Give the backbone structure.
Amino acid sequence: MKEKDEQLGRRAKALFDASVDELDAASLSRLNRGRQAALAELSRQRQPWVRWLPAAGVTAAVLIAAMLLLPSPQAPVVPVAVTDMEILLGEDDIDMLEDLEFYSWIDMALQDDDVG
Amino acid sequence: MSVDAAVFAVSWPGERDTGTQALESEQQFNRFLADVERRALRIAEIAVRDRDEALDLVQDAMIRLVRKYGHRGSDEWAPLFYRILQNGIRDWHRRQAVRNRVMVWFRRSNGADEPYDAVADAADPLGRTPDEELENREAMASLESAVRDLPARQREAFMLRTFEGLDVAGTAVAMGCSEGSVKTHYSRAMHALRDQLLEHGPDSDRPGD
């Protein structure tokens, strides 16, 4: 019985191998393409950052487009009256504001003296 | 030489080694897949009776092997590859079963009854006479038919052991079962095939090649 099993196994293997040798060129070509796709996957796995490149590129392009196309946010315009109120309500001496140029000149002159 | 310079100096050979190892690993994978792909295609084709579907299953198995088990040792690749392929074949049969039920529900033919013709028109690359070629093709057709008639697990065990040449341990990994189960499935498969091919088939008096 075991001899018959071995005989059957050998015969089956020989027939199978013959059918493998008879595979047509189109099938072999598709197998080759499949193998190359698998090897490309292997390369991608070794360089994981490569798979994020397209996504990073698209994200960067979207950001740049958004910066160029969308209106830039304006600085809030503070009404003049509000600015004046801050000065009026401040604890600084209001008289000093009347001679701003004079105080600026003194400041520059003192700096020049320090340097000299 | 400063410590940093020393570290830098010894890091370059390591970098080169990593690159060389990657290349060698890729070449190893290429050799393995090139060696196994044609037999895998025929095994899948016998299981699903469609070469295009079998090609898709084999390609999918190759990519999954690399993606999931690329880091494993090369001696593990064959059982793991066939495990992925057998899982793919089982999934394919499940999808076909669902599809066939849906087709029956809508009372539409899905073409599954069309005769399957695996005989190619190309000349015999082994230089056999047309009679020998025809005889072998008929014998292979009988064998394929008998193998397809086996229960799924017996068919898997027979094809992996006989066609692919995996040992019992490798077949057990590929089938996801114990080695004892492999022996049982294989023994039953051989018994069924012997009954069908050797005792009642046309090759009953033919000695093995």
Q: What stands out?
A: DSSP finds seven helices and no strands in chain B. Helices of chain B lie at 3-48, 51-69, 77-105, 130-149, 152-163, 168-175, 179-199. Confidence is low (pLDDT under 50) at residues 1-12, 117-123, 202-209 of chain B.
